Amino acid sequence: MTTHDIYLLSPEISMAGLAILLILVDLVVSRKSILTIVAVLGLAVPLALSIVLWFDLTDQAATQMKADFGTEIVTFVVDKFSLFFKFLLVGATALVILASSEYVSKFKNFHGEFFALILFATSGMMLLASTVELITIYVSLELTALPIAALAAFMRDSRSSEAGLKFLILSAISSAVLLYGMVIIYGFTGTTVLADIATQLGGLLDGESAFGGNALLFGVILVIAGFGFKISSVPFQMWAPDVYEGSPTPVTAFLSVASKAAGFAVILRVFYIAFSAEILSVDWSAVFAVLAAVSMTFGNLVAIRQNNIKRMLGYSTIAHAGYLMVGLAAVASRTPDADAIIGPSGVLFYLSGYAITNLAAFSAVIAISNRINSDLIDSFAGMARRAPFLAGVLGFSMISLIGVPPTVGFMSKIYIFGAAVDTNLEWLAVTGMVNSVISAYYYLRVVKVMYLREPIDDAPVGSALPMKLAVMVTMAGTAFFGIYPTPLINLARSAVDVLVS
Amino acid sequence: MIELAHLQILSAGLFAIGTYGVLARRSAVLILMSIELMLNAVNINLVGYAAFVDFDEATRSFGQVLVIFVITIAAAELALAIAIILRLYRNRSTVNVDEIDLMKW
Amino acid sequence: MFSGWLTTIVFLPLAGAIIIALFVRGDKNVRWFAGIISLAELVLSIAVFAQYDLGAGADQFQLVDKIEDWIPVESFKVQYFLAIDGLSAPMVLLTGILGMVSVFASWSVKERLPEYFMWLLILQSAVMGVFTSMDFFLFFIFWELELIPMFFLISIWGSKPNREYSAMKFLIFTLLGSAFMLVGILVLFFSFDTFDMTLLPDAISRGGILLPASLVFTMIFIAFAVKLPIWPLHSWLPDAHTDAPTAASVMLAGVLLKMGAYGMLRISATMFPEVMAGIAWLLASVGVINILYGAAIVLRQTDLKRLIAFSSISHMGFVVLGLSAVVGVNGQVSTVGITGAALQMFTHGTITGLLFLLAGFIYERTHTRHIPHLGGLATRMPMLTGALVLAGLASLGLPSTSGFVSEIHVFLGVFPVWSWLTAVGAFGVVLTAGYILWMIQRAMFGPENQHLNNVSDATVMEMVPVAVMVAAIMVVGIYPAIIADVFTTGIQPIVDSLQIAVTANLQ
């Protein structure tokens, strides 16, 4: 391991270091609000290191910086793709921490551990975006999943424990399925390095191996199943609503945004690097297209009946996983003259838009439900009068989740459906748009309850300063990128270049 | 003489038994054991591939390395799972997943 | 190119709404501020309309505001492109008039006043944007942007108990329509790599579209058909109208329905002349169905606003009927029928806007919209009665009112093409005369009602919008060229491309 390797790993290392620091600080300080400040300021370090890496990359005019840790096998790379996700993850984590500071103050102890677990999970996700080798991917996935299971079970009530247990069991099963798929692929190609898998497959698919085809496809399907769990796609979605409902709300926010982003990062990496062969890519694109259509329809239809806002948002993230998978299905090799990076760049653009919007929604939900001690949609009645600003933000983010202008949700939805149209998947775009109409029904129900119902009591609902900050940042982002999305799209497009070159 | 196919069949069988156990068992502890079975099925498969398939020198050890990682992580996973199950048992006095239904599965 | 006029006219109300949200306090101030904004908007729209150059050598698209690199990403080349042509100039004027009217018609709103005026102003911005956007993506943004204000206007300030249901129905119908339109837009974009509505007609005529043109046409047409609304997609309209507050009804009937008709002219007919000519028979039949169905349903309505709502369906049928002239007769396409359709958009906007306005005023005073409970109001509110009689007569197409001008254009233009259907459709005029006169007679004249003793006539503040609308109706009725000539310059290019398509079909 050379210093250069450490330099490439520095954002992840500093993230984990910050987590340990927080546990230590928790031991010595008595005013726990300091922890929030330390955590948010500390996040500037991984962010700064990522920015340094980005500029280093552009200075060298290189697409990738590789780390092999002295083994001559490249397991970890730094490129614009991984850095894009690192920015996204650090930003999302910072906002989640800001939004949870008030929530955490209700705990009797373990404040530092709560933040530390979030940061450990984030470091796993950041690794996930950078790994190019199956073993490392598995380890990073578990590094992401275990802290989240602990976080889900963080509260002492039985609901939270139940959420944690469900997440852990289903996550373990999905890991086993994923591993089985990985092993089959390893058995066929003799390697776990993604780029080498692609070269080996190139030979196998030419017909050298009679054994090839079906068993390999079985492996790919198992991998899709394993990853499908991480992004809560149908039919691997059953954990999502329960875990979303039972977990502490900041954890739900973190799960819906960061965990999903990391899942898509690793899916894009694996499928675009390892399974990029044309015959194979058309096959898995069809699988993703079907999963996308089923996920969005299922998520939206079931969400209509929900009364708990966290559970509703849980089903809504299943639907959004469906929209995101439209971008995975939009593989350029489906049609002769399609834009090569429109699908993956659509995923990245949509993910960042969804992250901003969903964090705005969750921040507002945390702020409100923390004060009124209820997650039921009906208890948000008259919130427009009790907390005009928070209700406005929640309403605006609901509009963004539907995909109505002038919001980033609108822009990203159109971009990703454009990818579907460009790759000859018009039916998927139509399905997606019809689904947005269905989703309008339940998203607007929240708006209706807040704006049309009489409040249960008239006491105004306030919020603390860190919460206000989180809400304002996300709200401004939703509106700004809804009007001028160019920088975000360009960033996403430059990030995915590395996948197709 | 043991061949790769034997190991593959053993592994597939174990994986299937594990999957059945996860779906059919009602005690959270037994479900965890079934998951262990699934993971170990994967391990057997890995070792089999690493031992029998004629890979090039640089990547020959990958299978064994992955086995070590799987075993380690499974241990960590179990520790956490047992902790959560204990918490749940204290709250609800049961580890039967049919009764852990505050929220619909 | 950036003249700035259209940008100002589109974003002034939006800016006004933001200023109200942030700075203006007190109901009275909000009211006056919104009034001033809407007056300024009216003045601007008159100025824009007056500046439109009818001359032979003038550009087709004028007052261009264009920023090409708004979103200059490959695969997503959206530009900011506002302009007017002969088709949109009168619509801008119409929106200016009705925007002002709807603000002044809301003078007596008391509940949650700042929010109310904010939504009203945002709605006006969105509609202005629809009529002036020449970039398909921008068009779609404004098309969708109009939904949310309307949703809130109906669901918060509408009449109980059905307002939430009606608002949601309106939203879902329109969203569903535009869902298909978006996919159509995207197909066009990825076929020709541009969202520019001024370039697309040429590109499409050269071929190379990814999906069959008729399929793309259908996807886009559905959105307009829902908005117009064409039978059988109309069922949202009576509910929305009945429950909407007065000002929202005025905007809905006056301009929002016109967005559908405008889209058919601007996009369906301009970009897909062949398909449009191919379905002319369908347009003619559906138009006649709309006219007769709407009129027949009106005859059994007892709710004043519901009555006007169904009469809207009937009158929008004339627009569709006028559009069916696109196929031409003996291979010759004329501008008359299509101009009639365009004129009907404008005149129906002013007439029905006025009818809804008056219905709103009457409801405020009598607290009932049930016609049998009204009656004998003429002596107590002579000014409102006079205005209602005039609006009614214009609605049934009395000569020297604007209603006559547009209907006669439609009949003259379509009769040579679809003689029988036109004759059947003309029967709708008879029905219209029947229900309008019956409505006025039952609601305003007849014996006086004891429980309506305390009602008063309109205040001066309320007569301002009424007077503006009456003026608009009379001016167009007496001197139709002021609007018709402008429309003709906008329709000429459409007819030219239709002519090519029809000629090609004959050969």
Characterization of this structure:
The complex is a heterotrimer of chains A (501), B (105) and C (507). By secondary structure, chain A is mainly α. Chain A has one domain (3-500). In chain A, 78% of the residues lie in helices and 2% in strands. Chain A is built from 20 helices and 2 strands. Chain A has helices at residues 3-28, 33-42, 44-60, 80-104, 111-130, 134-152, 158-189, 194-208, 212-230, 239-246, 249-274, 278-303, 309-329, 342-372, 383-386, 388-402, 408-422, 426-452, 465-483, 486-500, and strands spanning 64-67, 76-79. Chain A has a two-stranded antiparallel ribbon. Chain A is globular. The two termini of chain A are 28 Å apart. The model of chain A has no long low-confidence stretch (mean pLDDT 88). Chain B is mostly helical. Chain B has a single domain (4-92), classed as Orthogonal Bundle (Helix Hairpins), CATH 1.10.287.3510. In chain B, 73% of the residues lie in helices and 0% in strands. Chain B is built from 3 helices and no strands. The N and C termini of chain B lie far apart (47 Å). Chain C is mainly alpha-helical. Chain C has one domain (5-506). Helix content of chain C is 71%, strand content 4%. Chain C is built from 20 helices and 2 strands. Chain C has helices at residues 5-22, 27-51, 88-104, 113-132, 136-145, 147-157, 163-192, 200-205, 213-227, 236-243, 246-271, 273-278, 280-299, 304-323, 336-366, 382-395, 402-414, 419-444, 460-478, 481-506, and strands at residues 62-73, 76-84. In chain C, strands 1-2 form a two-stranded antiparallel ribbon. In chain C, helix 4 runs antiparallel to helix 6 and helix 14 (304-323) runs antiparallel to helix 18. The chains are: A mainly alpha (501), B mainly alpha (105), C mainly alpha (507). Chains in contact: A-B, A-C. The interface between A and C is medium-sized, with 34 and 34 residues.
Task: Give a quick set of tags describing it.
heterotrimer; A: 501 residues; mainly alpha; 20 helices; B: 105 residues; elongated
